[in-house]
Amino acid sequence: MKTKAVFYHAGCPVCVAAEQQVAGALDRSKFDVEIVHLGKAKARLSEAEKAGVKSVPALVMNGQAFHINHGADLSALK
Amino acid sequence: MKTKAVFYHAGCPVCVAAEQQVAGALDRSKFDVEIVHLGKAKARLSEAEKAGVKSVPALVMNGQAFHINHGADLSALK
């Protein structure tokens, strides 16, 4: 079974770089990678917060949030 | 040809989590992943700095530095 990985972003330049390089480099034979634009999918902000996401871009895998560089604080997207 | 990816860390708990989860999730059919412990390999601090690494853990791919959460500033390792 593949592990779920969610990449949260907000379309910012820092986010795009992280999406292309880091999210794009994940092993798709092991991970189902979902890309979520929190600027557009505001309904998923609470889910991201619960997963420990403080800023975007961030990658959530196995219950852990990994903030990759810093594009925008989650609070700025509300 | 595989792309080179270098994961810099300093053995900190934040680093270990990022190494296991993020560096461990990279597609090894596309990336040659090198793990560098900057606390032990101080000679490579300048290389990391040149790549734009400000703190560990960080992943450098295609000339870009991606800081993953925050374990320690590079300056603390000198």
Short description:
Two copies of one chain form a homodimer. By secondary structure, chain A is α+β, with helices and mostly antiparallel strands.
Protein described:
The structure is a homodimer of 78-residue chains. With 78 residues, chain A is of the alpha+beta class. Chain A has helices spanning 13-21, 45-50, and strands at 3-9, 31-37, 55-61, 64-73. A four-stranded mixed sheet of chain A has the order 2-1-3-4, with helices on one face. In chain A, strand 3 (55-61) and strand 4 form a beta hairpin. The longest helix of chain A has 9 residues, at 13-21. The radius of gyration of chain A is 11 Å and the shape is globular.
